[in-house]
Amino acid sequence: MGTEVSMHCAVRGFPVPMVHWFKNGCLLTNCSALFSLQNNGQLLTFRNVTKEDEGSYHCEASNQKETIKSQPAFLLPAEMDWSFVQQPINLTVRRGENVTVTCRPPYSRPAAQVSWFKDNQLLTPTTHVTVLPSGDLFFDSIQEFDGGSYFCRASNIYLQRFLTSRRASLTVLAPPSLKVWPQLLTVPVGARVVLECQVSGHPLPSISWIKRGHSKQTGGKIALG
Fold first, then answer.
1. Model-level pTM?
2. How many CB atoms lie within 10 A of CB 88?
3. Which PANTHER family does the annotation name (predicted)?
């Protein structure tokens, strides 16, 4: 809103046709005074578009021989508020859950387009992660690699304006999982033996070694002998 907008109705004929403009079926000279006509009425200009100018417009050209009518064109003044309705918040979730990260864009006409960024990189939707019509980000069975820093961006291309939300941290918890099991070993008495145990999980699990119900030490390896 607040910008200059023009509509063009190009006609020709002999005698030179008279051009009239209509808004929502009403002769424009009877509906609004905030416009100007140039080039024998073929160019309609609004100097400072407002909400009141919204509507369906068409032109009619006529001479002594015939009257023709154009297709309608809809004028929608673009606007967008300067603050989000809801912004993302920090979340801690469990691996495998379905998760929604909230982003409700500002009021906008036409509706704002919402895009998401992860760790400062534009996020491409997949079957695993999608942007909902509301603007929220939805994860189907979230995984550890989905963890990171997220923010959303709302844009109105007609205003060439965008707003960026605050950042939110998404932490995905994963239970401990054994990657390398200790092996059953047979060795001579007095030999040096190393037993190894590798695990995964988030946060990284701590490891304790137990012998006959008693803790020996912590860590991924234990050396005996």
1. 0.69
2. 23
3. CONTACTIN 5, IG-LIKE DOMAIN-CONTAINING PROTEIN
pLDDT at 30: 57
Residue appearing with tokens 């989905």: 146
CATH superfamily membership of 5-77: Immunoglobulins (2.60.40.10)
User: How far is the CA of 41 from the CAs of 15, 31, 45, 120, 176, in angstroms?
Assistant: 15, 16, 10, 51, 76
Cis (ω within 30 of 0) for the bond into 77?
Answer: no
Report the length, in residues, of the chain: 225
Same CATH topology for 5-77 and 80-173: the answer is yes
CATH of domain 80-173: 2.60.40.10
The candidate with the shortest Cα–Cα distance to 42, out of 25, 64, 17, 23, is 17
Residue of 85, 81, 86, 80 whose CA lies nearest to 101: 86
**Domain extents for the chain?**
5-77, 80-173, 181-224
